[in-house]
Design a protein that fits this description.
- The structure is a single chain.
- This protein has a single domain (about 25-190), classed as OmpA-like domain (60s Ribosomal Protein L30, Chain: A, 2-Layer Sandwich), CATH 3.30.1330.
- About 45% of the residues lie in helices and about 20% in strands.
- It has helices at about 5-25, 30-60, 95-110, 125-145, and strands at about 70, 75-85, 115-120, 155-160, 185-190.
- A 5-stranded mixed sheet has the order 1-2-5-3-4.
- The protein is globular, with a radius of gyration of 26 Å.
- The N and C termini lie far apart (about 75 Å).
- Mean pLDDT is about 80; it is low at about 1-25.
């Protein structure tokens, strides 16, 4: 074996041994691990209680509106807060009362929540056009919540699903039959600190 090969082999074995021994210094004591897990479980339980509380608030406040509230793991979905006319992104007057109520509840009890406005379109038109139209619809609802209802702009975001087939209420429906597909929904991803 040449001396260069021997030196390279010895160096590789030395580096591997040093890495292996260095890795042993990162062990965690069982008591520290158990304490960290217990803290995470308590945090998870606290967040779930906040989500349950918010879901109950929403159910109570929005019983009079034609919307569905679903508590999912770690979030709440408020379906169909706004419908839009064909090829339009203008918020209709009949939807504003529900958005006002939503913002009032959020400001009063869950001001730290992160809200995502989801915009949708029916499948008439191209996929790229419908993606942009869904974004304009989501922005219309977001802007209303921020500018008219005083929600924190950094806590409300907008996203478009356009004509995504797996998100259509009436798959393939357009024009007058497609109104359920031309909508905006709200998702509360983090319940924040209930006051």
């Amino acid at each position: 074996m040449s001396s260069n090969v021997y030196r390279t082999l010895c160096l590789a074995v030395g580096v591997t041994s040093a890495v292996a021994f260095a890795g042993c210094t990162n062990y965690v004591k069982r008591s520290d691990f158990d304490a960290a897990i217990a803290k995470l479980q308590n945090t998870d339980q606290g967040l779930q209680q906040q989500i349950n509380s918010l879901s109950q608030d929403m159910q109570r406040h929005f019983a009079k509106y034609d919307t569905e509230i679903t508590a999912m793991q770690g979030r709440i979905r408020v379906d169909t807060v706004a419908h839009f006319a064909f090829n339009q992104a203008t918020l209709q007057d009949q939807d504003k009362a529900m958005l006002d109520e939503f913002a009032k509840v959020m400001r009063a009890h869950h001001s730290d929540a992160l809200v995502t406005v989801e915009g949708f379109a029916d499948p008439a038109g191209s996929t790229s056009y419908n993606k942009r139209l869904g974004e304009r619809r989501a922005d219309a609802v977001r802007n209303y919540l921020v500018n008219n209802d005083g929600m924190d702009a950094s806590r409300v975001r907008a996203v478009s699903y356009g004509e995504a087939r797996n998100r259509q209420v009436k798959p393939g429906a357009t024009r007058s039959a497609g109104e359920p597909n031309r909508r905006a929904s709200l998702v509360i991803d983090f319940a924040g600190n209930a006051s």
